[in-house]
Amino acid sequence: MPLCKHFFPDSQASRLIPSSQPIDFGDIYVVRGSIALPILELFKGDQTMKTAFSQKTQDDYESYPHLNKARPAIIVKTRPKDNLIGGWHPPIWYMATFQNTSEYRSLPRLYKHFLMAVNSRALHRQSPNEDRHIHTLPEWRGSSQQWVLALEYTPPANYWGSGRWESPGDEIGDPLTHYAVDAGLLQKARGYAEEQLNKYMVDTPRRLKLEMRDEFFRHLRERKKENASHLNHFSQTSDLFNCMRIRLVSSNKVWQMDT
Ligand SMILES: [Zn+2]
Asked: In angstroms, what is the span from residue 254 Cα to ligand 1's centroid?
């Protein structure tokens, strides 16, 4: 693999972009969703992969916004010049974190095929030869490794949040910030994503595709079971606790179909 040629221009600088400035290619926005959605959409376009289960699961996710977390999402399309006001809902790449490296290792192969790391300067030092990553401007802050699922998906209009993703200020005094991905780097990453999509669509034998699909379905079923048992547990508790549950559901702490 070639060495990473990425660079860190202005990597420490924080910035807040006025909300009046229209979002565009490379901006990172708040969008509800699950990283399962782009994969399910992939099946939807392929009659040999689509099943009643995949369609039902996608319908559920897309019908009930509360099943989806608000998460950062990278805008992967350039804004049309004649559309400079709101109401533009372009395709995105969802970002995600996982609890730990063992959770990442146990992910279905389909996720891993499209995941790219978001590397901070510190992580970059640990694995400088790993080309499969992107950088944000400024450098991404957070205690967990951030990932991006490099598979395009256009979320329903009501899944869009009200602004760009914002980091909290940190303990060493960096103020709030919005993030973006450098346009040149994002183009390069899109080229890589296209190669990955081709590898899956064209080069992967059907037998292996079916195996990967079924592995993905097993993962979804397990997650559904875990979430159902959470809700079941809550529903057996007192009214007071149920009030708390409603508050939790509305703030997305209960339903996290993926992490
Ligand atoms: Zn790099």
From this structure: 35
**C-alpha 83 – ligand 1 centre gap (Å):** 33
CA 239–ligand 1 middle distance (angstroms): 51
pLDDT at 86: 64
Cα–Cα distance measured from residue 115 to residue 149, given in angstroms and rounded to the nearest whole number: 4
pLDDT digits (tens, 9 = 90+) for 188-219: 999 999 999 999 999 999 999 999 999 999 99
**Helices marked H in the chain — which ranges?**
36-44, 52-63, 101-105, 109-114, 121-126, 183-198, 206-235, 239-250
pLDDT bracket for residue 47 (50, 70, 90): confident
Say how many Å lie between the CA of residue 95 and the centre of ligand 1: 17
Centre of ligand 1 from the C-alpha of residue 181, in Å: 12
192 C-alpha to ligand 1 centroid (Å): 14
Least confident interval from 35-39, 144-148, 149-153, 168-172: 168-172
Q: What's the whole-model pTM score?
A: 0.84
pLDDT the model gives residue 249: 41
Distance (angstroms) between ligand 1 centre and the Cα of 176 equals 23
Cα-to-chain-centroid distance, residue 24: 17
Give me the residue spans of the domains in the chain.
28-204
Interval between CA 126 and ligand 1 midpoint (Å): 11
Amino acid 112 reads K
